[in-house]
Specification:
The two termini are 29 Å apart. The strands form 3 sheets. A 5-stranded parallel β-sheet has the order 1-9-8-4-5, sandwiched between helices. The protein has a two-stranded antiparallel ribbon with strand order 2-3. Strands 6-7 form a two-stranded antiparallel ribbon. Helix 2 crosses helix 3. It is an alpha/beta fold. The protein is 27% helix and 24% strand. It has 5 helices and 9 strands. It is globular. A hairpin with a 4-residue loop joins strand 2 and strand 3.
């Protein structure tokens, strides 16, 4: 089991903690989204690597994740960005009786940022992500995490890569589902 909540295990789907509402409806005309809420703001704070957001999400997620699970994070769309807020959260979660494979998936080629209209096709991720040879995830039970999901294709691509590399099981989780 990956999650302490049995309803979250073995669904084959992405488990999403809550909805994510973007800040701007129209950034150019400075029209804010009236649905933007505190939870969505905390996700933005996490994206900026703010310690308060990392601690907030750690407190939410730590009791939800079983021990002896391997933590892995979907890499940023920017190949130069290695220490995202999501990675820092993953490291903190891995430090509590779990295995740290936070950086196992590596974006070696920058792709257009998905939130700015980048191509969301699964093949874009499969062609721009590889793995680190020095980490072995064969036979591991993996929790694959992302901050926000829209189509889910980055999570599905990373799950495919992890299973090809020998992971026994991969459960997918996102903090927010873009609405």
């Amino acid at each position: 089991m990956v999650f302490s909540n049995p309803l979250w295990n073995d669904t084959g789907e992405i488990i999403v903690y809550s909805n994510y509402h973007k800040y701007w409806l129209d950034k150019e005309r400075k029209i804010k989204n009236p649905l933007f809420d505190i939870f969505s703001g905390r996700i933005l704070d996490l994206k900026e690597g703010k310690q308060s957001a990392i601690q907030y999400f750690y407190n939410l997620l730590d009791p939800e994740i079983c021990s002896d699970v391997t933590i892995c994070v979907v890499p940023s769309s920017d190949s130069k960005s290695k220490k995202s807020g999501m990675c820092l959260l993953g490291e903190k979660l891995a430090g509590n009786g779990r295995h740290n494979a936070v950086y196992y998936l590596n974006r070696f080629k920058t792709i257009d940022k998905l939130a700015n209209g980048g191509n969301r096709d699964i093949s874009v991720h499969l062609k721009s992500i590889n793995t680190l040879d020095e980490i072995d995830i064969s036979e591991e039970i993996v929790l694959l995490m992302d901050d926000v999901t829209t189509t889910g294709n980055s999570l599905y691509a990373c799950r495919e890569i992890l299973l090809e590399k020998g992971a026994q099981k991969v459960e997918m989780f996102a903090l927010g589902k873009s609405i």
